[in-house]
UniProtKB/TrEMBL annotation:
The keyword Transmembrane helix applies. Keywords: Disulfide bond, Immunoglobulin domain, Membrane, Signal, Transmembrane, Transmembrane helix. Residues 1214-1243 are annotated as: Disordered. The chain crosses the membrane at residues 427-446, 458-477. It comes from Felis catus. It holds the Pfam family Ig_2. Residues 38-106, 226-297, 324-389, 684-776, 780-868, 972-1041 form the Ig-like domain. Residues 1225-1243 have a biased composition (Low complexity). This is Ig-like domain-containing protein. The lineage of its organism: Eukaryota, Metazoa, Chordata, Craniata, Vertebrata. It comes from the Eukaryota. Residues 1-28 form the signal peptide. Gene3D superfamilies: Immunoglobulins.
Length: 1243
């Protein structure tokens, strides 16, 4: 909505639609603040220029609070803790600049935490009043027709408030309230009062200064009362003779209610306004069968009105001697699986107290449940049988309902069939178990044999045990695989895609004079092609060309050429399926066409495909029994599609097709094989989709989901009309109603048109809607352009043109966030136009396109670059920034970047006080860069940029932010100080003082790593104070400042000296080093040097083991001597600021001093010499003792040899007696003698 005010460009951000159900709105002043929401407003001492000095006030509704928080742009700006609890505080902002402009809210502290924020205050740039907010305030007195209060909050006091309505140049109302809120009353709302309203404010003494328009508010007078709802207490199922109440309510208060029963014109009972306000209900006493029926309630109006009553929800009252029977179902099916349980679900449509489950085969069996779920297991086959359930309600806990219909549960043997999967699994498990038992027996036999033969080799037994363990692990793994045979997803084993076969000729009127057969493969890895005749004869082999095709010239047809032809494509390790068969029937006839169609469905459209092999032929469709052709189609390529718009019984029959040349005399082909169309009884078509987008890249994972509400179904997956996969999980899982087909890694030949069907014995479903799977990255990337441009007004049309590289392709348009392509289009050219009709806000987003060929597995191109479509009446605001910074030394280069979300649109750069644009950047570049080289004082100034569309458009253009370019190095540098110091604790306030050389200059505060200045001021003297409240850790960094003249000669100073700021509770730790080294020398001292990052500090040195600090120093140098060895040990140092003597830094890393000097070292050396001498004496003594003992050794050795020989002879004799139990034994003495003589055993 645009107002006729000069210089104003309001923006419609959003539209609120308020449905007024003829609500009477209060004329009096009502509270504009929610119970827990604070109030935010502005006060100023410059009534004619409020932006010169602004103070924000925040007021809590509770009148007491200990803390208040001010937020800017959803982040915390500052908070105030008053000395005593109060209800309002002020936040001084000072002069309004672009740095403190933004969105403001405030909160206050409650006992449970921060309150919800106030309404949002938007402060624009200096020179503008804040944008008001606009909403509707209503009471709860709904009467048709009356008064509406619209509230406008202007944030400042003593403003003039204007109410505007779309379509009217003059305001429809104005007010001058004493506060910050104006209340506009619209009396007696009628359809003429509908429309879009906004409000604006201006200063009383300055009527030319207007605020921005508020957000628009759209008022619509509804022509329908809202619905009522009806509830039965305690239940809609009631026993005869009981009492009950019907509770009727609706969102419209202040009106009566009437109770109606279906079949009766007059209301049964009435409730007036007073009764509804007291929350009364309709009562039914001593209910009988005549009270059963369908009830509803309507509003009871005491006045005439044209407002319609909507359809109301109804409630069915059931009167029984017993509650009606529930329903009983089984999940996942009524057939038990091995080791699986079944859940029986007992359900009724109203609340119950308890459910009961009975088992007919066991009279004593009974289970109870509150939610109606009963888990039945089939342990020892004791779960099969017939079950039923009942329930009771809370109103009549002693009366049980009628029983449900019986439900029979069957075991695996009761189903009447065994699946191959089940038999295969059990056979594998049994064979593995038998092999495991056999292997264990072999291991036990080996172990027993080794023990009997006294075989001591451990490796044999260990190897056998290792093989056994390996086999056990393998068995367990295989059993796990056997359990996983029936998976959730059926993997599609894609065959090598079959090639396409067609014929070409240079004699269109007599193709048989020179015929060439072409074979083309959708797979890029094809090496060669093979042409076969009649399925056996090898005609020729051709290598694949760059277009992955090969030609087989036949020349002029002869009788030897007649037959059926098809071709294969060969890859490295696979041969494709054969192509469709091309049949040559004679030397002067066209090839025989092929006819096909999907299963016909009664009442739906059917397409019959006729493939004719040669291009430029015409097609004719015949029906058996009809002499004349049913349909004829002109030359449309190598195939044609005949359409039967609505399939009925009369359309059933045998069909065939023929082709003929385009010009007379016609040359005809043989008729195709007949196609029988019979309408069969079918299930509804399944729901078929891909879990992700059907436009995929090679190697992606694709899952097709085919589902139906019917149970016990098997599924078939088709690609381009051919069956490629099936899922018969219905036999193993009787409750299945969906199948998932998986392509683990998509290849270039896996694209195509996929569909699915399900069947149950002899009945099939209709084919699903096809899904076009497109495999991208095969053809070059297309380009996508928006016409007339990427920014379009709501309600207008926009055309997206996708330009491809090849003709005859099919195009698809995609939108980010949508899995399914928005539109498809097939064209004979190389581009497609997609029309977005009457666009709205929901059409905004990123679009891209792709093109692909339909004859060769939907091989597609790369996705185009996305293009952003904006549905708005105003171009989005661009952003202007400088790189590397907007503060540049003289002679350097700088680049001004103008960037926005709209692509493909030019930008234009403006400089303040210059009539013409500085630079124009065309829409062909990728970004809006405006370089300025060898910068000088002439480049100083304020810059802005905006879009420069290259098409005529009524859409408004907004300027970007204002960027001030400052060129330094022309004036003396200022000085920069931080108060209270360079180290500040988090949450404290800080002030930077920048002192310049010239008065009335503009000062700018800079931070290293930030492109834009942090803040700028223009004080009256030589110094500017930059206040930073509640500093945080991210405020740490290196700061500097400059000053400049904003009038001729527009010169700026050099940077001040850099000042490093630390926001921390403790200053950073210092470093500690030793000079000349960390090792003491005799008579020499060591100097420890402690250094910190801040000036004006006092250092302290600490020694481990000593509680009090050892030394203090202002320069950080400490001299350490090693008298009596007391200098050795670990040292660390820290420091404190002289301005903050109570804050100490963290200690430095420890430094260890080692070595010795003086008398202590001499004493240590003497002790070491004495100890070394004693060690030498002990070693020499041990050597002497060993030498003496060695001389005695030969005699001991001889005596021991004799003794050991006798002992060993006795041991061998005992061993021989054990090994030969039948041998004669000898006396020990004789054995000893023999052994000592024959077997002398040396030591």
């Amino acid at each position: 909505m645009t107002l006729d005010r000069p210089g104003q460009r309001p923006t419609m951000l959003r539209t609120f639609t308020v449905l007024l159900f003829c609500i009477r709105l209060s004329l009096g002043m009502t509270s504009i603040v929610m119970q827990s929401q604070p109030e935010l407003w502005i006060e100023t001492n410059y009534p004619q220029a409020p932006w010169e000095n602004i103070t924000l006030w925040c007021k809590s509704p509770s009148r007491i609070s200990s803390k208040f928080l001010l937020l800017k742009d959803k982040t915390q700006m500052t908070w105030i803790r008053p000395s005593s609890k109060t209800f309002q505080v002020s936040f001084p902002l000072g002069a309004l600049t672009k740095y403190n402009a933004g969105l403001y809210r405030c909160c206050y502290w409650k006992e449970t935490g921060w309150s919800e924020p106030s309404k949002v205050l938007e402060l624009e740039a200096p020179g503008q009043l804040p944008k008001p907010i606009f909403w509707i305030q209503a009471e709860t007195s709904p009467l048709p027709g009356c008064n509406v209060n619209i509230l406008c909050h202007g944030w400042l006091q003593d403003l003039v408030f204007m109410l505007f309505k779309e379509g009217y140049a003059e305001p429809v109302d104005y007010q001058i309230p004493t506060g910050t809120v104006a209340i506009f009353s619209i009396a007696n709302m009628t359809p003429e009062s509908e429309g879009v309203y906004i409000c604006r404010t201006h200063i009383q003494m300055l009527p030319t200064l207007w605020s921005e328009p508020s957000n628009p508010l759209k008022l619509i007078v509804a022509d329908t009362f809202p619905k009522t709802w009806l509830l039965a207490q305690p239940s809609p199922v009631v026993q005869m003779g009981q009492h009950m109440s019907l509770w009727c309510r609706g969102p419209v208060d202040g009106v009566g209610l009437a109770l109606y029963k279906k079949g009766e014109d007059k209301p049964l009972q009435l409730l007036d306004t007073a009764s509804t306000d007291d929350d009364e209900s309709f009562f039914l006493n001593n209910v009988t069968y005549s009270d059963a029926g369908v009830y509803s309630c309507l509003y009871l109006l005491s006045w005439k009105t044209s407002i319609r009553m909507t359809s109301h929800n109804t409630m069915e009252l059931v009167v029984v001697d017993k509650p009606p029977k529930p329903s009983l179902s089984a999940w996942p099916s009524t057939v038990f699986k091995l080791g699986k349980a079944i859940t029986l679900q007992c359900r009724v449509p109203h609340p119950v107290l308890e459910f009961s489950l009975e088992w007919e085969e066991r009279a004593t069996f009974q289970k109870f449940s509150v939610d109606g779920d009963f888990i039945i297991s089939n342990a020892e086959r004791k779960g099969t049988g017939t079950y039923s359930c009942s329930y009771r309600i809370e109103a009549h806990p002693n009366i049980w309902s009628h029983r449900s219909e019986p439900l029979r549960l069957m075991g695996p043997a009761a189903t009447g069939f065994l699946t191959w999967n089940y038999v295969l699994n059990e056979a594998i498990r049994l064979s593995l178990f038998m092999q495991l038992v056999a292997l264990l027996l072999v291991v036990l036999w080996i172990r027993w044999k080794c023990r009997r033969l006294r075989i001591r080799e451990a490796w044999l037994l260990g190897t056998a045990q290792g093989v056994t363990m390996l086999f056990i692990v393998t068995v367990l793994f295989c059993c796990g695989l056997c359990n996983g045979v029936l998976t959730e997803e059926t993997e599609i084993i894609m065959p090598t895609p079959k090639p396409e076969l067609w014929a070409e000729t240079n004699f269109p009127l007599a193709p048989w004079k020179n015929l060439t057969l072409w074979c083309r493969s959708p797979s890029g890895s094809t090496k060669e092609f093979v042409l076969l005749k009649d399925g056996t004869g090898w005609i020729a082999t051709r290598p694949a060309s760059e277009q992955v095709r090969a030609a087989f010239p036949l020349g002029a047809l002869t009788q030897s050429h007649t037959g059926s032809y098809h071709c294969h494509s060969w890859e490295e390790m696979a041969v494709s399926e054969p192509s469709e068969a091309l049949e040559l029937v004679g030397t002067d006839m066209l090839p025989k066409p092929v006819i096909s169609a999907s299963p016909p469905i009664r009442g739906q459209k059917l397409q019959i495909r006729c493939k004719g092999w040669l291009a430029g032929m015409e097609f004719v469709l015949y029906k058996e029994g009809v002499q004349e052709p049913v349909q004829q189609l002109g030359a449309v390529g190598r195939e044609a599609f005949f359409t039967i718009q609505r399939m009925e019984a009369k359309d059933q029959g045998n069909y065939s097709c023929r082709t003929h040349t385009e010009k007379r005399p016609f040359k005809w082909s043989e008729p195709s094989e007949p196609l029988e169309l019979v309408i069969k009884e079918m299930y509804p078509k399944p729901f078929f989709k891909t879990w992700a987008s059907p436009v995929v890249t090679p190697g992606a994972r694709v899952t097709f989901n085919c589902s139906t509400p019917h149970q016990h179904m098997s599924f078939i997956l088709y690609k381009d009309g051919s069956e490629i996969a099936s899922s018969d999980r219905s036999w193993a899982s009787p409750g299945a109603s969906a199948a998932h087909f998986l392509i683990i890694s998509v290849g270039a030949g896996d694209g195509g048109n996929y569909s699915c069907r399900y069947y149950d014995f002899a009945i099939w479903s209709e084919p699903s809607d096809p899904v076009e799977l497109v495999v991208t990255e095969y053809y070059p990337q297309p380009t996508l352009l928006a016409q007339p441009g990427p920014v379009v007004l709501p309600g207008k049309n926009v055309t997206l043109r996708c330009q491809g590289a090849f003709p005859g392709m099919r195009f698809a348009l995609l939108q980010e966030g949508n899995q399914v392509p928005l539109q498809f289009q097939s064209t004979s050219g190389n581009s497609a136009d997609f029309l977005l009709h009457t666009v709205g806000a929901e059409d905004s987003g990123n679009y891209s396109c792709v093109y692909y060929e339909t004859t060769m597995s939907n091989r597609g191109s790369h996705l185009s670059k996305p293009i952003m479509i904006w549905v708005t009446d105003t171009f989005p605001k661009p952003w202007l920034f400088a790189e590397p910074s907007s503060v540049v030394p003289v002679g350097k280069n700088v680049t001004l970047w103008c960037q926005g979300p709209v692509h493909g649109v030019g930008y234009i750069l403006h400089k303040e006080r210059e009539a013409t644009s500085v630079q124009l950047w065309g829409s062909t570049s990728n970004d809006g860069a405006f370089p300025i080289t060898n910068i000088s004082g002439a480049s100083i100034g304020r810059y802005s940029c905006c879009y420069h569309p290259d098409w005529t458009s009524p859409i408004k253009i907004q300027p970007s932010n204002t960027l001030e370019l400052i060129v330094t190095g022309l004036l003396p540098k200022p000085s920069l100080l931080a108060q209270p110091g360079p180290i500040v604790a988090p949450g404290e306030n800080m002030t930077f003082q920048c002192q310049g050389e010239l008065p009335d200059s503009t000062f700018v505060l800079l931070k290293e790593g930030t492109q834009e200045p942090l803040e700028q001021q223009k004080p009256s003297g030589y110094r500017a104070d930059f206040w930073m409240p509640a500093v945080r850790g991210e405020d740490s960094g290196i700061y500097s400042c400059v000053y400049y003249l904003d009038s001729a000669p527009f010169a700026a100073s050099n940077h001040s000296d850099f000042l490093e700021i630390w926001v921390t509770d403790k200053p950073p730790k210092p470093s500690l080093s030793a000079w000349p080294s960390t090792m003491f020398k005799l008579g020499k001292d060591i100097t420890l040097q402690c250094r910190g990052p801040l000036p004006g500090v006092e250092f302290v040195l600490e020694h481990d083991g000593e509680e009090a600090p050892q030394q203090f120093s202002e320069d950080g140098d400490f001299v350490i001597n090693n008298v009596e060895g007391k200098g050795i040990g670990n040292y660390s140092c820290s420091y404190r600021l002289q301005a903050y003597p109570d804050i100490w830094s963290e200690p430095s890393d420890a430094l260890e001093l080692v070595g010795a000097a003086g008398p202590a070292a001499q004493e240590c050396t003497v002790g070491n010499i004495v100890r070394s001498s004693l060690i030498v004496v002990v070693v020499v003594a041990l050597g002497v003792v060993l030498a003496i003992e060695w001389k005695k050794w030969p005699r001991l050795r001889t005596r021991d040899s004799e003794t050991d020989g006798r002992d060993q002879t006795i041991a061998l004799e005992e061993c021989n007696q054990e090994g030969e139990p039948g041998a004669n034994t000898s006396s020990p003495s004789s054995v000893s003698q023999e052994t000592s003589v024959e077997l002398p055993v040396p030591i």
